[in-house]
Automatic annotation (TrEMBL):
It comes from the Eukaryota. Belongs to the GHMP kinase family. Mevalonate kinase subfamily. Keywords: ATP-binding, Kinase, Lipid biosynthesis, Lipid metabolism, Nucleotide-binding, Steroid biosynthesis, Steroid metabolism, Transferase. One of its GO terms (biological process) is isopentenyl diphosphate biosynthetic process, mevalonate pathway. Pfam families: GHMP_kinases_N (PF00288). GO terms for molecular function: ATP binding; phosphomevalonate kinase activity. This is phosphomevalonate kinase. Its EC number is 2.7.4.2. GO terms for cellular component: peroxisome. InterPro entries: Erg8 (IPR016005), GHMP_kinase_C_sf (IPR036554), GHMP_kinase_N_dom (IPR006204), Phosphomevalonate_kinase (IPR035102), Ribosomal_Su5_D2-typ_SF (IPR020568), Ribsml_uS5_D2-typ_fold_subgr (IPR014721). Residues 184-257 form the GHMP kinase N-terminal domain. It is an enzyme of class 2 (transferase).
Length: 511
């Protein structure tokens, strides 16, 4: 038996920093960039003496990174012991495997069917991990070959292309002490990867039933009731692997898709943070804890498109930036609270305008479609001039309202960055974003998540995406192929490298 599960990457369009504290919400979009985990037996036959074993074998392969790690898995404790070089291991994968196996063991023990799981485990686990190209930056390769920084160039790369490592130090020199890192685009690769592995294993063991990748959104809402365990286990494994308890919006998006998210209370993972804890006890505590996160469905209003760009102006450390903001919070609590309150208000009002646009689309589609078509071919200051009736006026008011509140969010984030001494929206990004928001058909343009130099995004109306992409390319910004896709974790029909869908995607022609 072979199980293939996938989980999407994310873009946080509002709620940066706010989302770290309850009850503040963030709007996060899942994307068509997905991580895939393929799980199958390592051995075809079970030897009779295998039943006496207290361990089994696990192999984890990452073809894009040319890495393979092997482990011994304790059937009793659900812990992994690496039998290859530690340079080949990934802590997120290790925690995902251990927590998924422990959760499955607890499930079968409670049902008095522990031997059913052990029968599966003694065949070993063969896990292959693949990530969509969109998670990784190919900018250096494109520039090295003198190719244009366009989506058309990106589309020529084969699917699941081999990943290169950055080996240069901060000053551009190669250092033996510099740990090679993969250049990424900030879509939450570790969260998507962790979720895909947890989901594939839990489905493989028969603990959960994942929704099919071909399922309708309506059906998926009810199917989500079966994947709460995927969320809890993936969230726990991801937090423990990164050594801190984050907001968790990236894992939640990987499980449930595009959403309005409010974080869980960190206390639900208190037992997991105690070093040397017995894994079965930790899993019981985690699964029995009161997970108080909120994840309600959200998506962009119809006829709007997400476009991401890679400025190529250097990366940013989210952890460092968050740390600086928290330090400012302690040193200047009065100004922090004032900024925080205004920022939360602006985020809530942006969300209200986007929800209103979704409502307009449901109730008066023909008129909504007409006004969106007109707005896509003109700059925002011309939108109201095209209004011919009250309903169209209401739609345009919501569009302009969303822009106004988003400008307030950007201004407050800039102020917060200056006060904390970190470039949440760097000046170079500000100039680029302002010019983008003045283009025809552009609703919003900003820096996602914690901000910095990593990426920019735009929310574009109608048919204006190609014009914005070309404008970005002309100023050295690489527009990416990734789009919004509101589906969360999914069960795939087979290995994506062999699917006709992958071949079709890799041959898309971008104008």
């Amino acid at each position: 038996m072979e199980v293939v599960a996938s989980a999407p990457g994310k873009v946080l369009i509002s709620g940066g920093y706010l989302i770290l504290e309850r009850p503040n919400a963030g709007l996060v979009l899942s994307t068509n960039a997905r991580f895939y985990a393929i799980v199958k037996p390592l051995y075809e036959e079970i030897k009779p003496e295998s039943w006496a074993w207290s361990w089994t074998d696990v192999k984890v392969s990452s073809p894009q990174l040319s890495r393979e790690a092997t482990y011994k898995l304790s059937l009793e404790k659900s812990t992994l012991h690496c039998t290859t070089s530690r340079n080949s291991v990934n802590p997120f994968v290790e925690h995902a495997v251990q927590y998924a196996v422990a959760a499955a063991r607890r499930n079968f023990v409670e049902k008095g069917k522990k031997d059913v799981l052990e029968k599966v485990l003694v065949q070993g686990l063969d896990i292959t991990i693949l990530g969509s190209n969109d998670f990784y930056s190919f900018r250096s390769q494109i520039e090295a070959h003198g190719l244009p920084l366009t989506r058309k160039t990106l589309a020529t790369f084969p699917s699941f292309f081999s990943i290169t490592f950055n080996t240069e130090g901060w000053n551009g020199t190669v250092s033996r002490s510099c740990k090679p890192e993969v250049a990424k685009t900030g879509l939450g690769s570790s969260a998507a990867m962790t979720t895909s592995v947890v989901a594939a294993l839990l489905h493989y063991f028969g603990v959960v039933k994942l929704p099919s990748s071909s399922i309708s959104l309506t059906e998926q809402v009810s199917a989500e009731l079966n994947i709460d365990m995927v969320h809890i286990i993936a969230q726990s494994a991801h937090c423990l692997a990164q050594g801190k308890i984050g907001s968790g919006f990236d894992v939640s998006a990987a499980v449930f898709g595009s959403q309005r998210y409010v974080r869980f209370s960190p206390s639900v993972l208190s037992s997991a943070q105690i070093g040397g804890s017995y894994m079965p006890d930790v899993i019981s505590d985690i699964l029995n804890a009161k997970w108080d996160h909120e994840a309600s469905r959200f998506s962009l209003p119809p006829l709007m498109t997400l476009l991401l760009g890679e400025p190529g102006s250097g990366g940013s450390s989210t952890t460092s930036m968050v740390g600086s903001v928290k330090q400012w919070q302690k040193s200047d609590p009065k100004n922090y609270l004032e900024t925080w309150t205004r920022l939360a208000d602006a985020n809530a009002k942006l969300e209200a305008q986007l929800n209103l646009l979704n409502k307009f689309a449901r109730e008066q589609w023909a008129i909504y479609e007409q006004i969106m078509g007109m707005c896509s071919y003109s700059a925002h200051e011309k939108w109201m001039e095209q209004v011919v009736d009250q309903f169209q006026e209401e739609v345009v008011k919501s569009l302009l309202g969303a822009r106004d509140y988003f400008f307030k969010i950007r201004f407050l984030m800039q102020q917060m960055g200056k006060a904390a001494g970190v470039p949440i929206e760097p000046e170079s990004q500000t100039q680029l974003l302002d010019s983008t928001m003045n283009m025809e058909g552009v609703l919003l343009a900003g820096v996602p998540g914690a901000g910095g130099f990593d990426a920019i995004f735009a929310i574009i109306i109608g048919e204006a995406t190609d014009a914005v992409a070309k404008a970005w390319s002309s100023v050295g910004v690489l527009p990416l192929l990734v789009k919004e896709d509101s589906h969360g974790v999914s069960l795939e029909a087979g290995d994506p490298r062999n699917s006709e869908l992958t071949s079709a995607i890799s041959s898309i022609k971008i104008n």
